[in-house]
Input
Amino acid sequence: MLAAVCLFDLRIPDVHSLKEKRHVVKTLTASLRGKFNVSVAEVDHHDLWQRATLAISSVAGEGYHLKRVVHEVERHVERFGRVEVIDARTSFHAPDD
Output
């Protein structure tokens, strides 16, 4: 079993309130959950209008499958039209045997 955690530091340039930001973040997180069956949470920059950090995690039995899911998640976030990716980091974890 392997687990992956991806952190995306995002800029949301066209929003002018926290309400608009929440709408963009909610739309992105829902699309990630629905399309890739991953866990998603906003983990930083809660009070800033044009910034967000999303943590995305997934678990799989095979490394190949997990790497493929992570790659597709990264592509999806980069192609999502309302956000700009400032930084993206991924870490893989295996339980101690």
Notes: The beta strands are 2-11, 39-44, 51-60, 84-93.
